[in-house]
Design a protein that fits this description.
This protein is α/β, with parallel strands linked by helices. The chain has helices at residues 87-94, 104-113, 116-132, 148-159, 181-189, 191-196, 214-226, 243-249, 263-270, 280-286, 293-298, 319-329, 334-341, 343-348, 375-378, and strands spanning 10-19, 32-41, 44-50, 60-63, 68-71, 73-75, 135-141, 164-170, 202-207, 230-231, 233-235, 254-257, 275-278, 303-305, 365-368, 385-390, 393-394. It has 2 domains: 10-72 and 355-394, Urease, subunit C, domain 1 (Roll), CATH 2.30.40.10; 74-348, Metal-dependent hydrolases (TIM Barrel), CATH 3.20.20.140. It has 15 helices and 17 strands. Zinc ion is lined by residues 77, 79, 234, 308, 310.
Length: 396
């Protein structure tokens, strides 16, 4: 396969199965076009059509060899700005210890001790790792600094390497505030927010047992909203608390995890514009019951799939892994899982330029070493992503 020029102009031809996620372009919800080609000019999709029928353009030509081409994955939930790892904690959990939110403290210590260069190197490494597996849009949260300076620098470091940044000062209460929760919440909603808001587009809270309760989460999210940040939330991972309903109350773009949901939570999501973002890597890595995607889909709720890359509860950047687990364990069809990891992720980030390959979309696509998107779930653990283009440029 030819490399492309630096212009972001490329014609991908001889595609056996093209997933556009644009039902007006192709068949079904995935907008599938067979024997297709897609033209990207200056980083933007300008034409989709039949193989060999592309309009003239001064484009590098890539022969997909009859294989499948999909939109790049949109990973709407990641925690990449950290130092250290917690392999020993994972091993202990696999030998029977339960997961709690408190293990985050060890990553906070390592993150605070790391230099800016070390933090940045970790973000760069993980973004590159994600790219190789087909991810072309990355969201990254702070949340391992938990001081004014360390939260702000986490966002500064991340912001030049990812598409979306999220302020998560309310990840857990750090040890030095253990007896002064109210003071920490006030800091997160005040001075820390002031330092972080210029470097973030979103505000998030870990609203769950062992982290922040609904009233604390509402205070932090409202403060972020008042500073121009858009809300999203970690909700209902560990128990069926009030996080999901708070997300709906505040018009959050996404409620993430959604593992333990009451009927009222499902009803609230169904009547809202809030996406349910499911993170099966977390249940996998904590040996916990998976969320029931089928229940959400059958209620008409928009579902996204994301990797939740973090060193404690889901140290994976692999969206193909998440798709396979979602199909096997969460009662999603392969097509639903692919949609949720592409356009679903875009919906969770309120973006219309990524997650699909309709005309006007960003030229983000991946070539699978397989004839169909079905193979992502059908062939779990196999590195099928053979080429990745971002804005029409070869990215992996
Ligand atoms: Zn998370």
């Amino acid at each position: 396969m030819a490399d492309v020029t630096a212009s972001g102009t490329v014609l991908v031809d001889n595609i056996g199965e093209l997933v556009t996620n644009d039902p007006s372009t192709g068949e079904g919800p995935l907008g599938i076009v067979r024997d297709a080609a897609v033209l990207v000019v200056d980083g933007v999709v300008t034409w989709v059509g039949a193989r060999g029928a592309a309009p003239d353009a001064d484009a590098a030509v890539v022969d997909a060899g009859g294989r499948a081409v999909l939109p790049g994955f949109v990973d709407s939930h990641g925690h990449l700005a950290f130092a250290g790892d917690r392999a020993e904690e994972f091993a202990a959990r696999m030998s029977g210890q339960p997961y709690t939110a408190g293990g985050i403290a060890s990553t906070v210590r390592a993150t605070r001790a790391a230099s800016d260069a070390e933090l940045e190197a970790n973000v760069v490494r993980l973004v590159a790792e994600a790219r190789r597996q087909g991810t072309t849009t990355v969201e990254c949260k702070s949340g391992y600094g938990l001081s004014v300076a360390d939260e702000a620098r986490s966002l500064v470091v991340a912001s030049s390497h990812v598409d979306e940044t999220t302020y998560l000062g309310a990840h857990v209460v750090p040890a030095e505030y253990a007896d002064r929760r109210d003071e920490y919440v006030a800091l997160v909603a005040g001075e820390m927010l002031d330092a972080c808001a210029p470097h973030a587009g979103w505000v998030d809270v870990f609203c769950d047992r062992g982290a922040f309760d609904v009233d604390e989460a509402r205070e932090v999210l409202a403060a972020g909203i008042s500073r121009g940040l858009r809300p999203r939330i970690h909700a209902n991972q560990l128990e069926a608390g009030g996080g999901v309903r708070l997300a709906v109350e505040l018009g959050a773009a996404s409620a993430d995890h959604c593992t333990h949901l009451s009927d009222a939570d499902v009803d609230a999501l169904a009547g809202s514009g809030t996406v349910a973002t499911l993170l099966p890597g977390a249940e996998f890595s904590t040996r916990s019951p998976y969320p029931d995607a089928r229940r959400l889909l059958d209620a008409g709720i928009t579902v996204a799939l994301a990797a939740d890359c973090n060193p404690g509860s889901s140290y994976t950047t692999s969206i193909p892994f998440c798709i396979a687990v979602a199909v096997r364990e969460m009662r999603m069809t392969p097509s639903e899982a692919v949609w949720s990891a592409t356009l679903g992720g875009a919906r969770a980030l309120r973006r219309d330029d990524v997650g699909h390959l309709g005309v006007g979309a960003r030229g983000d696509l991946l070539v699978l070493d397989a004839p169909s998107h079905l193979h992502l779930a059908y062939r779990p653990g196999v590195p099928l992503v053979s080429a990745v283009y971002r804005r029409g440029l070869r990215a992996a």
